[in-house]
Request: fold
Amino acid sequence: MFNNLSKGLAGIVRKLVTGTNVDKQAIEDILTDIRKLLLESDVDVELANQLVANIRRKCFEEKVPSGMTLREYMLKVIYEELVRLLGDKPSGFSGKRIMFVGLFGSGKTTTIGKLGRYFVKQNLKPALVALDYHRPAAPEQLMQTGKETNIPVYVEESKNPFDAAKNAMQKFQKNNVILFDTAGRSALDAELADELKKLSEIIKPDEVILVIPADLGKVARKQAEEFNKLVGITGVIITKMDGTAKAGGALAATLVTGAKVKFIGTGEKVDDFEPYDPTRFVSRLLGLGDLQTLLEKAKEAEIKKESVEKIAEGNFTLQDFLEQIEAMGKMGPLSQVASMIPGMGMVKMPEGMLEKQEQRLKVFRHIIQSMTKDERQYPDIITSSRVRRIAKGSGRKEEEVRELLNQYNQTKKMMRSLGGMAGMQRGSLKNLAKQFGFKM
Ligand SMILES: Nc1nc2c(ncn2[C@@H]2O[C@H](COP(=O)(O)OP(=O)(O)O)[C@@H](O)[C@H]2O)c(=O)[nH]1
Ligand SMILES: [Mg+2]
Reply:
């Protein structure tokens, strides 16, 4: 889904995470890339420009929060602006009567089947009502959908949609949700407009859901506005997200009207359907784990800035090392932390490597905890007899104590030899990851 946009954004993020330097020019280059990508995905020019302008302003005019590198800050800003572009909060359904509108072929009937099934899974008792009597095959299709999902369907013998609405509401009094499948046309003409308006007066729907196919692109905005004027839409479901690289257009255009996207359809089958959660959606689009969660957790864990800096300079003690391990521990299991680190999601790690690392860190922690304050501060004083004592105290093997000291010395050497580069990335999570043996 969203293949091009997602691939493109993931590429931009990778560039940002792995680029050697983030300066003014690098930021401008990234902004150019983002704008180009949004336009290619059919996002409105005005919207794309606005998004880029917002990111630029935040990066150049606002102060980068302390404890954050420009790189991380920029990622955060890009993420936030995309979330803003693609909606803010997930939104569910309220009320009993849900009326579906949309042009012919947009996916109304299919979506009603999907949503019906979704309600069944939530232990609700949905019912479906056929209101499209212009096409003979339409009620038939809804009957079929009902059969497949085991949900009752009302079809009016007289083929009068207004009677159908009235009679169905009578019949389905005991059901908790009634889904009304209205007629569509290839365009919203006067006759259809009239019928929908009348139906909406009879049904008095709690929700009016506009169904829009993702491949409609920028036109989605006009359509949403027209339907909204006519019957007042309360939400949108975007279908066929699986079939187009340009889905950004429909999504962004719809949201501009103030409509909330509630669900997205990702295929023809009844389970190809998911609630729309903008923050999760954008994370996925960026190829990141949940960046926001990571940033919050990092703050919670209060990774000590100075000790990170010391590590970056190759000038750190075992005490610093321990603090880092403990901070990482507070952020959750390593696999979880790793999936949240920008860029890490894109790196394939050998199976079991994280678990092994985690185990190793635990051992290191126990060993360091068995050391005296002096030993943690000046590891050079640790002689063989001290190694023996530490091993005994921590219940670990002498070998493991030596391995820790080795790892410490190597890391120190590595960080020193990296010199300038390490300094540049000081404080960054990437650096932290490197510290603990991940390659990014
Ligand atoms: N690939 C894909 N096809 C869909 C999706 N939703 C609906 N369709 C297809 O779009 C066509 C029209 O759907 P239908 O529900 O009959 O549209 P309606 O005229 O608005 O009721 C059918 O062939 C559906 O299988 C979707 O999310 N993905
Ligand atoms: Mg239909």
User: Anything to note?
Assistant: The chain has three domains: 3-85, 97-277, 291-435.
